[in-house]
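Narrative of activities, Objective 1.

The group set out to show that a structural description can be obtained from nothing but a protein's sequence at a throughput compatible with the screening campaign. Below is one input-output pair from the validation batch, recorded exactly as produced.
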Amino acid sequence: MSMKSKLSPLTWSRRGLLAALLSLGLLSACTGNEPPTTLRTGVARVLATQTAAWNRGDAAGFMAGYWKSDSLVFIGKNGLTYGWQRTLDNYRRSYPDAAAMGQLTFTSLRITPIGSDAAHVVGKWHLARPAAGNLQGHFLLVFRRIEGRWVIVADHSS
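Output recorded for this entry:
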């Protein structure tokens, strides 16, 4: 009698389950999936870097968190803006100096993975501007990992 015939069907189903789980694990490793906490940390790091740049009056540094592409889309009170440079130009026109930019904070952040290389973020933004008056609103950002970097590919801020 062979070894195979001595094993119970339960043993074979456990082996099959183990093989399936190992295959899935290897497949995940090969496709670059990362745990949701790692994804969230990467996205949160971009937002923290943007906040620091904004708060030192560096609009170009703030824009480093955006996809540098003509396909970037920003939706705001004036409608749609396509492109990284046009979005930067709009920020510079609306916030010409550090006093106009104020101090930015993001709160109520909800970072939701929507794949191994994409996430969306919902939250609130607030600009403390003692001389010009405070501003605040809400946003929905779509992040993608492009060439190994997390970047905002779409921003709807109101």
